[in-house]
Amino acid sequence: MAETASVPAIHAPSLLGQTVVVLGGSSGIGLATAQLARAEGAEVVLTGRNRERLDRAAEQVGALSTAAFDSTDFDRLSRFFAELPVPIDHVMVSGSGPYYAPLPEIDLAEVRLDIERHLLLPIEVAREAVGRVRPGGSIVLIGGTGGRRNAVGLSAISAVTAGQPALTKNLALEIAPIRVNLIAAGFVDTPLSAQILGDQLEARREQLRATLPIGRVVGPEDVAALAVHVMANTALTGGTYDVDGGQQITAG
């Protein structure tokens, strides 16, 4: 019997011809998602607070356009959306990490800023998306899993963490058929993590390599792969999807 050669399946790029807006796209998870979206055929629009870093990211991915501003400036955010070519297909809300502090040291200004970034910003983005994001397109929010634990220093972030899935479900109903989903990440090896941990970064990496079921540290490309899947899979809305390498099922 003659052998038949195996021909690998060829898949069309999952975001071919679509436009993805990444708020907080100049580094880390946002930049990794922009890179993968481009590889999957999308045009990307990047925002970030630091113009120099944003320009480097835009050149790296071949961005359609950029805008340098703080996303929690909601007047500026509204102008940004008003200036976008429409329709767009997906908006990712990435950016800053969580705020941790024990009760005696809590800075209420920082707590308010954390609430703005993780609860109020998604509300504003959802409102701006109506009429601009096509039906069946999506908003992808980035959150975390660390605030699900009970521990000293987590009083503020635990409330934010608990609120994000509920907000996601309700926004998915309010702006349907635009889809809204939340990605909850554990520790991700990003420049932001390096900034927060400083000289403790390598020790944290080693601990995670030793304790995570996957045997390695989660990188921004892991989160990006999930984000692009959530954008492309039109059956997904109102969901929270964890990507933490199994961190929640270990003691670490």
Quick structural gist:
The protein has 252 residues and is of the alpha/beta class. The chain is built from 8 helices and 7 strands, in the order E-H-E-H-E-H-E-H-E-H-E-H-H-H-E.
Explain what the structure shows.
The model has no long low-confidence stretch (mean pLDDT 93). The protein starts with 18 loop residues before the first strand and ends in a 9-residue tail after the last strand. The protein has 8 helices and 7 strands. By secondary structure, the protein is of the alpha/beta class. It is 42% helix and 17% strand. The longest helix has 22 residues, at 108-129. The protein has a single domain (19-244), classed as 3-Layer(aba) Sandwich (Rossmann fold). Helix 2 (51-61) links the parallel strand 2 and strand 3 (65-68). It has helices at 28-39, 51-61, 74-83, 108-129, 155-174, 191-197, 201-211, 220-232, and strands at residues 19-23, 43-48, 65-68, 88-93, 133-144, 179-185, 240-243. Strands 3-2-1-4-5-6-7 form a 7-stranded parallel beta sheet, sandwiched between helices.
Number of strands: 7
Beta-strand fraction estimate: 15-25%
* Oligomerization: single chain
Largest sheet: 7 strands, parallel
CATH class: Alpha Beta
Low-confidence stretches: none
**Lateral arrangement of strands in the main beta sheet:** 3-2-1-4-5-6-7
Helix and strand run: EHEHEHEHEHEHHHE
Distance between the termini: 55 Å
CATH superfamily: NAD(P)-binding Rossmann-like Domain
Tell me the radius of gyration: 19 Å
